[in-house]
Amino acid sequence: MNCLETLRYGNSILKSSNIESYKLDCELLLAKAMKVSREELLVNLQKKIDKIKLNKFKKLIERRKKKEPIAYIFKKKEFWKFNFVVDNNVLIPRPETEIIVEEVLKLTNFRSSKHFLDIGTGSGCIILSIIKERPYSIGTALDISKKAINIAFSNAKMHHIQNKVKFVNINVDKYLGNKYDFIVSNPPYINSIEYKRLGKNVRFEPHVALEGGVDGLSEIKKLILKSKNLLKKNGKLIFEIGNKQMIHAINLLKKNGFYINKVCNDFQSIPRVIISTKII
Ligand SMILES: C[S@@+](CC[C@H](N)C(=O)[O-])C[C@H]1O[C@@H](n2cnc3c(N)ncnc32)[C@H](O)[C@@H]1O
């Protein structure tokens, strides 16, 4: 078979498995099997494929057919301006989470020397992007999952900032740390019922990274209560929320001595990130 025929074969399998991005995915997977770039593949479509590479491609197609996310198959995901290693022990970073980084950058400058805490760091994408952009600052990243902490640490090493970020494997409930200038977080916020309804591609991701209890607010509550003690006065708490959680989160923040600076919408105009200041 040549590359074009192989792509057609892969397309038909992924299309019949209802994978919307079947065409692009096939090209990426065939390029991976052949160890070439996608561009190189597309200008050599008549090239014959040897049996070993074809078998490799078939195995990749089988994984994708079962809805395994492309990011896990490639073990990497781009977030903000950087690449991060990911596997099924961490959430795949989402583009809407970049709003947190964007807002932190607006509130600081290149020379700012701040102490950041990232609660539920996962791959480390938020804190590591911030520290890359604000090299005079330092960070602490915590996660209840030891495997996530290991991935985040290797991402820090990959970006040569492992000495600027401390990693702690702990439940946020038990964490007693310094006073921080900024707390950032993308907590699990999907409620139990919604979680059960979610598609198979999300089910590849760790349950602990997604589900936030019966109402989806249990980790958000913990985050706000903890931040009240862990933030310096006038420190900022910037975090992501789920669909329809804005009012609850704002009420909780106000009850706990926070001023609401701003709520940012995501690309679908859904309120997604709250920026608040500890005023008491
Ligand atoms: C939605 S994921 C976010 C990961 C990453 N920050 C991102 O935005 O891609 C939430 C993370 O919080 C962690 N987590 C959940 N409950 C926690 C808790 N009680 N204490 C500390 N970390 C927790 C999970 O292990 C997971 O890595």
Briefly summarize what is shown.
This protein is α/β, with parallel strands linked by helices and 280 residues long.
Description:
The model has no long low-confidence stretch (mean pLDDT 96). The chain is built from 13 helices and nine strands. By secondary structure, the chain is α/β, with parallel strands linked by helices. It folds into two domains: 3-66, Helicase, Ruva Protein, domain 3, CATH 1.10.8; 80-278, 3-Layer(aba) Sandwich (Rossmann fold). It starts with a helix and ends with a strand. Residues 90-91, 93, 97, 120-123, 125-126, 142-145, 148, 171-172, 186-188, 208-209, 219 line the site of S-adenosylmethionine (SAM).
Write out key terms for the chains shown.
9 strands, Rossmann fold, 43% helix, Helicase, Ruva Protein, domain 3, 280 residues, alpha/beta, elongated, 20% strand, two-stranded antiparallel ribbon, 7-stranded mixed beta sheet, binds S-adenosylmethionine
